Queue: 2 jobs
Job 1
Amino acid sequence: MSNENNDKVKRLGGFAYAVVYSDGWVKVGRGKNPEARVLAHNSSSKMRGADYVASCFSGRLLCPEKAEKRLINFCIAHGSPAHGREWFSGVDFSDLVKIIEGEFPGDKEEDFLKDKESRRGLERVCESKLDEMFKQDRDWKRTCYSAEILMEILVLSGCKGDSFKINEKGYIPFLLDCSLAIHGCSKEELAIIFMQASLDPDGGIETIRAKSRKLVGLYLSGESV
């Protein structure tokens, strides 16, 4: 595999991890740089008088959220919540190591490249639909990228439904809504939309759809968009 492809893979996905401390608390989570996460947890754990004991990391995963959910569910079933939703006590750390090493050794590099290509394919479909709708020479690439991140925030917040899935025409309806809503926004307006999506997902979805409907309505009425 070329160095260029290796660089692409390194920017995709993430890792799941588990770490245990001297007071018996374990922390499970995910991130693109799990070593840095663990170092941060080590510092905060010292405040309660606990020292780092051991940690375990998965291989690079296309969907680290799946691995994190598996670890959290195991800890819920075999331990007790200690702090927040990712800290537990009473969990045998060796069991977490077995899960990580046995179930999440890492996805194949070619899978990452295929996933990247499929996501870019969806972006192209979205761009073409927008260009077809407005018949204008606009640069939708940056907009589609921002829209994808915005939609990912909402999905991770628990939002779901048919509008978040690829339809029979080959595109994701809500991704189109996001693109319409944020295209042409100032940095300040974009920051407000992203903040609302993070803090109030339902309200964020309604704001996005309202802005999208308004823009489509202007287009259909023949007014300038």
Job 2
Amino acid sequence: MTGDAITDSPIDRSAIKDRLLKYIGHLGLGQNAFEKKCGLAIGFVSKFSGNITMKSLEKIKSTNPDLNEDWLLYDRGEMLRGVQQTNISGDNAGIGSIGQMSGGSVDIHHNGGKDRAIVEQEKNVQYSLDVLTTELQKFHEQADRKDEYIREIVKASFERNEEYVKRVDDLIKLIVAQDQRIQARADRMFDIMEKKL
């Protein structure tokens, strides 16, 4: 490419294509999809020789603001802008927003915040706790109402029993009084009969 091609500092132009392909792989896109996304000509990536014009670079930068231009052109810094990169060897890979596996190591890019899945789990746990607390309060309220209902039933039963006992007592007194009157009449009749004899 000629005209507005970037030629300021010494550049390993074949390495630029390698880094561009690495970034495209990071995005999970094919070359044609990347070209369409950036508004580049079809075949731009496959034909790319390392000479890149300002116009093409601006298209790539405007559609991929996380791409570090210094990394792409000069291999300075990290591939992504504003991302802290930590290398974790072996199988002890932590949780990050972006992970890239390479051999026996994992590059993890931390965004400084909690993992979204952990946040969602915390929300679900909190929701479950709130539901359980509400249900427990309802249970206690129902238990209190049942206790009060039982007390009212027992009290009413005692009151009815007292009323029944009083009625039975009154009935016994009535029977005794009637028996006394009958006995008095019988006594008078015996007295009359004795006098006549």
